[in-house]
Automatic annotation (TrEMBL):
This is Vitamin B12 transporter BtuB. It comes from Buttiauxella noackiae ATCC 51607. Keywords: Calcium, Cell outer membrane, Ion transport, Membrane, Metal-binding, Porin, Receptor, Signal, TonB box, Transmembrane, Transmembrane beta strand, Transport. A motif (TonB C-terminal box) lies at residues 603-620. Ca(2+) 1 binds at residues 201, 213, 215, 250. The gene is btuB.
Length: 620
């Protein structure tokens, strides 16, 4: 524990945006996602988890789902294996209530549900993940009700790596990266990856013969960027990356859509200025997503093919100042979204702009840390939304701290929810209001002997929940604000060492209920127990992970379901080992779902049984 050993110099070596996190990723104790300025992770008053590239390699994760499932407060509902639709629930909030950032910039969401499809992000791109649990709308705006996931794609350490993997279900993966220093001031990075798996039949009980095939996943990824330091005050970057995915799934009816092709192209550039106590960052980005869904029996260019063509532009300007024993950050975020949703007969085109203004601050006064944020978002569709949060931490005795926080959040309706979608027979409801939340949280943390622990209890009230209703008479549907929910929870995390063994434990209790009838929300486990054991012996690095998720429900009652379907509890054990044959060559092996547990997280969708993976990597 480092509460009483805080270095002010480190705390205020400010960086305004997460896009610049890569400049300090070699120090795992630094984080930028919490307040949009760089600070030691032990000074963050919100529960936080950091996953490094070294962690990902040690765990031998094959997808972001593999990584996120290990973290505290996270439930995941997966409709099959790698690349299949995945919904993440942080602290019981809806999947759409999680803000997913890539290098500090919101991931474009093309679907009508408003959920960022993080399952399609290739893990080969990921160098670091920062997870903030709890509301962060006062810092980032819409979506950050349950938490924020920031996926950081760059590593600024010169060098390179070539890696190859094979595994169950005809899995194969090949990736490589080179980071070359050019002179003293320029770093050039080039990376690429290919991944393919034949998968398995995710709906073996489907009565349609077309659904009896394997549902595989194929991905191609390319990343290139340059960082340049002009002088002691100015530096800049430019980068671009893209990936194309092809995913097979089951439609559940004849000639239904069962193939998905997704194309992403993202370009980003930025300029950083630092002078004494002042730092400023200006970044711009362009994202283009083309998301096709079609029937394999008919082909891509035929009747039944749908396309969501999404363009998102972001411009962010942030400024940070050292003030007293802390930091103040203020800035402007501008975002423009354009979406064309079409099939072979109809098309809908949408466009909206949002401008956000934020102010965050943290101050240390002896043993007390104070934190506050405020933000206003001006949206050309639903007007002005203001959010705020505040927190205080008190180190009442050395190495022990109590925290108290309150924060508000909001979730913006999607373009299709407000203005309808012809191909899905959804009619407009321009009167939709944003979903809004208010969360209280109290926490305790400390260092007791070898045990570093943190206990949090929270209550999150979410109003104006958006719900879909279908009219059998008109054969049309629409979205309304008609529900609210109250989520209560307790989570405890701890880590300690015993000899050569390192232990990490997560215990979680969740009570998420719909206010109108006290019904438990779907896909949330009431209890979670997660345990990770790591050790090194005879040159082998070993990792064992155990995860238990208690019973949950597959659905909530509505006009289509009069009862809730209960899903059984399940537990998983993964084991991984790695051995450095030379200083450059490492061999890794993993067995996922060691005891071949038969379980489902979405009713009717099979999940992988026991899986085996073997990886070789060469660094230079």
């Amino acid at each position: 524990m480092m509460i009483k050993k805080l270095s002010l110099v480190t705390a205020v070596s400010v960086t305004a945006f997460s896009a610049w996190a890569q400049d300090s990723n070699s120090d795992d104790t630094l984080i930028v996602t919490a307040n949009r300025f760089q600070q030691p992770v032990n000074t963050v008053l919100a529960p936080t988890s950091i996953v490094t590239r070294e962690d990902i390699d040690k765990w031998q994760a094959k997808s972001l789902v593999d990584v996120m499932r290990r973290l505290p407060g996270v439930d995941i509902a997966v409709s099959g294996g790698i690349g299949q639709n995945s919904d993440i629930y942080i602290r019981g909030a809806e999947s759409r209530h999680t803000l997913v950032l890539v290098d500090g910039i919101p991931l474009a969401k093309s679907g009508i549900a408003g959920t960022a499809d993080f399952s399609q992000i290739p893990l080969s791109l990921v160098q670091r993940i920062e997870l903030i649990r709890g509301p962060r709308s006062a810092v980032y705006g819409a979506d950050a009700i349950g938490g924020v996931i920031n996926v950081i794609t760059q590593n600024n350490t010169p060098g390179g790596q070539i890696q190859a993997s094979i595994g169950s279900n005809h899995f194969q993966q090949y990736d490589g990266s080179v980071r070359q220093q050019v002179g003293d001031k320029t770093l050039v990075t080039v990376a690429g990856a290919f991944e393919d798996t034949k998968g398995f039949n995710v709906r073996p009980d489907s009565p349609y013969s077309v659904d009896s095939d394997r549902d595989g996943f194929r991905n191609k990824t390319f990343w290139a960027g340059v960082n340049h330091t002009f002088n002691d005050q100015f530096s800049g970057f430019a980068r671009g990356y893209g990936y194309s995915n092809k995913t097979g799934y089951d439609a559940g009816y004849r000639d239904g859509g069962d193939e998905r092709q997704l194309y992403n192209h993202t370009y980003e550039t930025g300029l950083n200025f630092t002078n004494g106590i002042y730092s400023s960052v200006l970044t711009g980005s362009y994202q283009r997503y083309k998301d096709y869904n079609y029937a394999s029996t008919l082909g891509l260019y035929n009747v039944g093919t749908s396309l969501d063509d999404m363009t998102q532009r972001n411009l962010q300007w942030g400024n940070s100042f050292v003030v007293g024993q802390g930091t103040i950050s203020a800035g402007i975020d501008w975002q423009q979204q354009e979406l064309t949703s079409s099939d072979t007969f109809t098309a809908d085109t949408y466009k909206r702009d949002n401008t956000g203004y934020y102010l965050t601050a943290q101050q240390h006064v002896k043993t007390v840390t104070l934190e506050a944020s405020a933000r206003g978002d001006d949206n050309d569709q639903f007007g002005w939304n203001g959010t705020w949060q505040t927190a205080a931490g008190w180190e009442f005795v050395p190495d022990y701290r109590v925290t108290l926080s309150y924060g508000t959040g909001f979730q913006a309706p999607t373009l299709g929810q407000m203005y309808g979608q012809k191909r899905l027979s959804i009619i407009p409801n321009p009167d939709l209001d944003p979903e809004k939340s208010q969360q209280w949280e109290i926490g305790f943390e400390g260092q007791t002997g070898p045990l570093n622990w943190q206990l949090s209890a929270y209550r999150n009230k979410i109003d104006n929940l958006i719900t879909y209703y279908y009219d059998d008479d008109t054969w049309q549907g629409t979205y309304y604000n008609i529900q609210s929910a109250t989520i209560k929870g307790i989570e405890w995390t701890g880590s300690f060492d015993t000899g050569i063994f390192s232990h990490q434990i997560t215990l979680g209790y969740l009570d998420p209920r719909r206010d109108q009838d006290d019904e438990v929300l779907a896909h949330r486990s009431k209890q979670q127990y997660k345990y990770q054991l790591d050790w090194n012996m005879f040159g082998f690095d070993m990792d064992v992970a155990y995860q238990y998720f208690s019973k949950s429900f597959n659905n909530n009652t509505n006009q289509f379901a009069s009862t809730q379907r209960r899903m059984p509890s399940y537990s998983l054990v993964d084991i991984a080992a790695s051995y450095p044959i030379t200083s450059h060559l490492t061999v890794r092996g993993r067995i996922a779902n060691l005891f071949d547990k038969d379980y489902e997280t979405v009713y009717g969708y099979q999940t992988p049984g026991r899986e085996y993976y073997l990886t070789g990597s060469y660094t230079f």
